[in-house]
Specification:
Layout lengths: L6 H27 L3 H23 L33 H37 L1 H16 L2 H11 L4 H9 L4 H15 L2 H8 L4 H37 L10 H10 L2 H4 L2 H29 L8
Length: 307
């Protein structure tokens, strides 16, 4: 007497094996990552910044940026009531700093994701199709590489409406060339392997090769590149906001620096208006860089990144 295996049971086996492989890969990644002390410091700092951003509505309230309900006097120095002093409207700078982390981190994340997505798509297709398409695409990439990214972002932000979407778009569409170059080089290396030739011989199409074979092999590079680009995106957002090209209706770290400049904090010596946002921008950029270097070292041990 024979019994047929139910289709769902037959499908559950491969799915269970795939979950187990992913779980083992995650455990192996974390085991290697935690040996990098600098990466752990960066991860802890990012966790604190993320916690501050997520809990800002509870800790400081959504009315912290309201000018009409400012609790203090303009340009008060740090005190027990206002640990970081007040701005030119009498608003609590500590509350503004915590609230501004939401915008700065969000814009940095979205801009980095957009930049990496564009670079990954163009890099994989250029490495896979080759020929005239790849030549034209790489020449366009070279043009973007030699042009200053910040200048292009400023030009886009100037001609478009002042909003967070404009800032994300301006940063994302001008910072993808490095990712495209790296992903294309990795794609060419992957497609030179024998199993790609076997997949093509068995009838694998372009989409199958790129999605099932190339993309999984370039994802470690994409992940490391994302963490590194996020620090640059946050710095770019702060620069655009400092130049007055950000969304004037929201609070961000770059916007606080721009307001401090307009209020004359530099000439008047009101350091509490300038230093905290600057330190926050530098700290979160450094944290992302440390995490990115650690991830890159874990995924590619041959790099030999210092721990």
């Amino acid at each position: 007497m024979t019994t047929d295996t139910p289709p769902r049971a037959a499908e559950a086996g491969p799915r269970r094996l795939a979950r187990q492989r992913r779980r083992r890969s995650a455990i192996r990644f974390w085991t290697r990552y935690r040996t990098h002390r600098a990466g752990l410091v960066g991860l802890a700092a990012l966790a604190l910044f993320a916690l501050a951003a997520l809990t800002a509505p509870l800790t400081v309230g959504s009315d912290v940026a309201d000018v009409t309900s400012a609790p203090g006097l303009p340009m008060e120095s740090p005190s027990g009531e206002f640990p970081l002093g007040t701005d030119r409207f009498g608003r609590d700078l500590l509350g503004l700093l915590l609230w501004g982390s939401r915008v700065s981190l969000l814009v940095g994340l979205l801009a980095a994701v957009l930049s990496v997505a564009i670079g990954t798509l163009l890099g994989i297709t250029a490495g896979h199709f080759k020929g005239g398409y790849a030549t034209v695409l790489m020449r366009v990439t070279d043009w973007f590489l030699v042009m200053p990214t910040l200048v292009l972002a400023i030009a886009l932000a100037t001609v478009m409406s002042r909003s967070l979407g404009t800032v994300v778009l301006a940063i994302g569409v001008t910072s993808w060339p490095t990712t495209a170059r790296l992903v294309r080089a990795q794609t060419l290396a992957v497609e030179s392997r024998p199993y790609i030739e076997r997949a093509k011989a068995l009838g694998g199409g372009h989409w199958h090769i790129m999605s099932r074979h190339v993309l999984p092999n370039v994802m470690p590079l994409v992940l490391a590149q994302t963490t590194l680009i996020m620090s640059a995106s946050i710095l770019a957002e702060a620069t655009l906001a400092f130049l007055g090209l950000g969304d004037p209706t929201v609070v961000s770290w770059g916007g606080l620096l721009q307001e401090a400049r307009e209020a004359g904090a530099v000439s008047s010596g009101d350091w509490w208006y300038l230093v905290p946002p600057g330190i926050a921008i530098a700290a979160v950029a450094l944290a992302f860089t440390l995490c990115g270097r650690a991830v890159e070292s874990v995924l590619n041990p041959r790099l030999g990144v210092d721990r």
